[in-house]
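Internal tracking record. Fields below are filled automatically when a chain is submitted to the structure queue. Please do not edit lines marked as system-generated. If the sequence contains nonstandard residues, flag them in the REMARKS field before resubmitting.
Queue: standard
Priority: normal
Entity type: single polypeptide chain
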Amino acid sequence: MSDKKPLPIKRHLSQTIKLSMPLIISQVTVVAMSVVDTVMAGNLGPTTLAAVAVGSSVWATAILFIFGLLMAVPPVVSEMDGAKNHHKVGPFIRQALWLCLILGLLFTLLLRQMHPVFELFKTQPDVIPHAIGYINGISWGVLPLSFFVAFRYLADGMSITKPTMMVSFLGLMSNIPLNWIFMYGKFGVPAMGAAGCGYASALVLVIQMVAYAFVIKHHRVIRNLHVFGKLDRPDWKEIWRFFKLGFPIGVSMFAEVGLFSVVTLLASSLSTATVAAHQIALNFSSLLFMVPLGLSMGITIRVGNAVGRKNPTDIRNAGLYGVALVLITQMVSVAVIIFAGSWVVAMYTADPLVTEVTLGLLLYAAIFQLSDGIQVAAAGALRGIKDMNFIMLSNVFSFWALGLVASWYLCFEAGYGVKGLWMGLIVGLTSAAVLNLSRYWYKTKIINF
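SYSTEM-GENERATED OUTPUT FOLLOWS
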């Protein structure tokens, strides 16, 4: 029998905030590792900083396809949880882990073939060997990352988000000393600069994978799902079904993050100081973006749970109230950029040229905060109703057909330089915000059980 009684507004808001807070903290912690990498690389000079910027943009594009593909886990698990079909969760996750193994091995090999990409984008020659060293180092982390993400999304789908926060914090605490050892050369380890940053990150991912496996095995609720209770053979039909479900999300994440990564590669053909400034501005913007991203993950779970309970009113409200929450957080982000931008940039660099360019780019980051928050929140709501194909089409159109073309034209043809690249980002994010929110508004008006 379906639960048709809708939840009050206060319950929607409180549950979304309660569910999302650990996710927000964990996402902030993840990007804080990138901030640490950027600051520590900046201390080794603009070339090392540029290498980490370019290398991490390639890495992010690859691994966020994996992240996106596995984002099919939370809505499926949350729907099973809402429908009380807990016996189905373990077998589902075990097949997802086989897919993680395949993806991890494939992308490890792929990341080691990136030299032609740097040649294609005419990356500064002195940056290329350092960027390749970074990618070769961090590529060892692809496989453990794949398993870690699957474990994390299982817990998230069960509305158990505190372990994610704790394991992410463990990663941050591990990242700082490991960077110090491998980048600067301590305890007999040679100083490896950007490459050392890559190896340190890979080790952090191994630590996080092991820690989350321990959580899955021993958590008082998750252990009852018996994920490690048996070793299932690969069920290729089930794996293919899961791949088809997650592929549109993977492509949509690839499209979104790929836009930022390609923009970084386009910037790499400009001066080293410009690349460094672009990386600092993008890095700080990414840190702020973790708040709406964490909320969007909570929105996905809340909407998916309402789908499991077959309550159309709650499905609609869980998404729309979530978007409203994100708008509030984004207004705060705008204020932080405007009033604390100079102080933040000073943490990254003392170079006057890099500082000047970075502060200019942060103004564009302030402009796209609202559209960026709306598009990711609405996408989270759409994932909750499994409208994956629309998110894919929306992101490909918005970020590549509009955003990337606008970035390239405004930078190189219109002569705006790196500022033109960021103007293109505004175009793409605004388009995605309008399309995703309109789609969710329409779809939840016609849902009927």
